[in-house]
Structure formats: C-alpha cells, structure tokens
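testing teh design pipeline on a random one, pls ignore if ur not involved
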C-alpha cells in the first residue's frame, strides 16, 4: 500500500476500527475514508453500493460489526445474525464489484467449536458444535470467511480474513448490558470503588458518559443505587459487593487492541490470500481443495476469570468483596488460540495483560 492509497475503514468508531485508524495515521497513511452509522447504514445494500461507486476505495478494512458479551449475544440473537450478515455481505460484494485491491475481513475466535483441542488452530473451523450463547454471531462470521474465500476462488479477488481473540482497549464498549467481560469488569470494579468511597460525583460523571439502561447522571441516588444493584454492584453489611457471572474458572485470552491493529496492518502490507490459504495442490484448479484461509490474531496465553478479577481489583484499588454467581453461565471453559501461523509470518504481540489493563483503566478514568 502507498501512503496516499484510499483506504476505507468500516467501523472506525469501535474498539477494533479506532485502533486501526490510529495505527494507520501513525504509519503515515493520509487518505482514510470513514463513515459513522448515521452517515452510512451498512445494512442497506443500496447505500453501500452508492458509497463504493462514488468513493472507489482501493483497500477496505471490514471492522464493522454488531458485537457484545454473553448477555447481549443471547438476548439479541436475531439482531446479531441479521445485522452482521447484512453488513459483511454488502461490503464484500461492493468490494468485488468496485475492484478493491485488498480487503481485510475481521471476525472473532468464537467461530470455533465449543469443544476443540487447545490451543485452537485454524484447522478447527467447522469441526464441531458452536457455543450456543454466541451461535448467531459466530455463524455470521463463518459465512463472511467463506464468502471471502469463495470470491477469491471464483473471481480472483484478494480478500483476507483475520480472527482476533478477545480484545480490550481504548474506545471499548463499557455498557454493562452489552459489554464483553473485561471492559464490563473494569467498569464494575471502578463503580464499586466509587460507591465504597461514596463518591457520587465520580459515579454521576461515569453515568454522564455511559448511562445504564435509562439511568444517567441526572437520576436520583435511589435510582442509581437500584440500577447498580441490578448489575451486581451493591452494599452488603456496610461493604460494597460485586457479583461476577459464572464460576470464575473459565480461561480467556485477551489482546490489547493496539497490538491487534499492528497485526492487521502487518497482514495488509505484507500478506495476500495465497499466503494464508492451505491449498491441496499448486494452483487454483477445479480439483483444488482450499481450507483454512484465515489467520488467528492473539497472544497465545490465557488467564482465568478469577485471576482477571484479582488483577482488576488490584488496579482499581477496590477494597470491597466480589463473588461468583455459579447459577449464571460460564460460556466456553477455555478458548486459547494457536498463533503459530501468524508468528511464523513474522509478527508477535507486545503488550501483556497486566500492562494492558493498567493502560485501559488509566484511559477510562481520564475519559470520564
């Protein structure tokens, strides 16, 4: 890619997209195309078609998606499969029609079966049953991989797919109803610390930026206390207590979003579809069998939710108690990616989990 290449980043406001935009700017790319949801609804095929026809991007980074944690995935199942299928289908189709030089499609490691060997290799795709709670999202992302693969094989496009592990970072979603586990825990412990300090100014400042359901910075103390209690942050015998879903036993891999963005730029600048695909013979003939055309992006190490809570408690200086509600779902017990494919290509992550949590929490406090 040239520094002046026209690059469209779909989903530039989200955790993934914003980190990639920052990385592109740091590397000197100057011709970046972005649109907010209000400016361009990516689920609407005719609007996406008009955008591509008028702007003619040379490269596309497809980071736009409807995302969330266990609660959101399980509650809004129809929205998760419909919105994600429509977004990616429209962008991939228009990238083909408008002869985009390269497209990077970003998915998630939730594409892999609920029960598969650890660490998870790219070859595990479609070898077993998916985790039920995020099945609609996972199926949509698998469809995106296969659509890119099919277009490459039939039309000769250069669409590559990367599956990041669980991400966290600046500009994350801290909505307690819809957030992933790590940002949700950071906010819970932060609000718990504010509550034990009886710092209502800090709590209202937090709610000014991110309301919880219909409760915001102008709500009464009683309403704020009730909504915090609903999400597991409350007084119990003069101590603030925080409820965590599940047993705490599951292990998760977490990657700092800026590391992920660096990996994405590495792939865009240095790798093509042929470099990622596992092909049964030397060329794309009718008899070729092509599999595993995606690459995992991760750290190759994981941490239990229990240990994660302890780390966040220490970083936020929360002095209260937290407990695990074992009646709530754990999700998959372990999900660690095998990143040897990416490492062999020449890229390795830099930021460890403890350092990353510190960076994110400091940003979160300053931003609020």
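output:
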């Amino acid at each position: 890619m040239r520094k002046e290449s026209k690059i469209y980043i779909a989903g530039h406001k989200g955790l993934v997209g914003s980190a990639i935009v920052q990385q592109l700017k740091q590397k000197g790319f100057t011709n970046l195309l972005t649109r907010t949801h209000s400016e361009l609804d990516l689920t609407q095929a005719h609007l996406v078609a008009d955008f591509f026809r008028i702007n003619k991007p040379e490269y596309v980074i497809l980071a736009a998606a409807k995302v969330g944690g266990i609660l959101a995935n399980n509650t809004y199942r129809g929205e998760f499969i419909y919105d994600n299928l429509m977004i990616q289908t429209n962008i991939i189709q228009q990238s083909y029609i408008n002869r985009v030089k390269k497209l990077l499609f970003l998915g998630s490691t939730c594409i892999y079966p609920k029960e598969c060997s650890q660490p998870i290799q790219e070859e595990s795709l479609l070898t077993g049953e998916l985790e039920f709670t995020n099945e609609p999202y996972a199926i949509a992302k698998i469809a995106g991989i296969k659509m890119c693969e099919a277009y490459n094989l039939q039309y000769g496009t250069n669409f590559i797919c990367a599956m990041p592990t669980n991400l966290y970072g600046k500009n994350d979603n801290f909505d307690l109803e819809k957030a992933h586990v790590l940002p949700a825990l950071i906010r819970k412990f932060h609000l718990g610390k504010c509550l034990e300090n009886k710092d209502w100014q800090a709590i209202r400042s937090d709610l000014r930026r991110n309301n919880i359901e219909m409760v915001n910075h102008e709500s009464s103390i009683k309403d704020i206390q009730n909504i915090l209690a609903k999400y597991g942050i409350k007084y119990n015998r003069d101590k603030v207590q925080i409820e965590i879903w599940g047993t705490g036993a599951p292990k998760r891999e977490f990657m700092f979003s800026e590391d992920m963005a660096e990996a994405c730029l590495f792939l865009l600048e240095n790798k093509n579809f042929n470099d990622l695909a596992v092909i049964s013979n030397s060329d794309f003939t009718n008899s070729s069998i092509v599999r595993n055309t995606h690459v995992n992006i991760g750290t190759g190490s994981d941490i239990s939710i229990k240990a994660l809570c302890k780390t966040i408690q220490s970083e936020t200086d929360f002095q209260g108690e937290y407990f695990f509600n074992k009646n709530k779902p754990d999700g998959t017990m372990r999900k660690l990616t095998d990143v040897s494919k990416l490492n062999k290509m020449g890229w390795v992550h830099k930021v460890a989990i403890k350092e990353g949590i510190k960076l994110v929490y400091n940003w979160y406090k300053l931003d609020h």
